[in-house]
Design a protein that fits this description.
The chain has 122 residues and is mainly β. It contains no helices and nine strands. A hairpin with a 4-residue loop joins strand 7 (79-89) and strand 8 (94-101). The radius of gyration is 15 Å and the shape is globular.
């Protein structure tokens, strides 16, 4: 079955990255909060260790499986970097995915949705 774009995704939101497997020490989590933010329009941002980027992608369904496919880039005082990635919902509310950069380095991640705080909440 051919993948098709969908606009009614359950994937948008803020996700805290809880586990990683990586090919390069730059992806190591260190003491930074690692996250991926997926917007309803396919925009967003991620940070895993020392690597971060702005993302733009699309939601697709393939044989009943939904995933978010994206490209990312950053351009700052440390230089330009880019790549691509994907994320999909797994069992028990866990988001799983992979982020690759143009040099071939990669990180696989697991994440949990960040619960939204209520107005005026602590």
């Amino acid at each position: 079955m051919k993948a098709r774009r969908t606009d009614d995704s359950s994937l948008p939101g803020d996700w805290r990255i809880t586990g990683t497997e990586y090919s390069n020490e730059d992806f190591a989590e260190l003491f930074l909060d690692s996250f991926i933010r997926i917007g309803k329009r396919g925009d967003g941002r991620f940070q895993i260790g020392l690597v971060w980027g702005d993302i733009r992608g699309k939601f697709v369904k393939d044989g009943g499986e939904e995933r978010f496919e994206f490209e990312w880039e950053k351009d700052d005082e440390d230089g330009y970097a880019c790549g691509d990635g994907w994320a999909k919902a797994g069992a028990k509310g866990v988001l799983r995915g992979e982020i690759l950069d143009a040099s071939g380095d990669w990180v696989k991640f697991r994440a949990r949705r960040v619960k939204a705080r209520g107005r005026g909440g602590r």
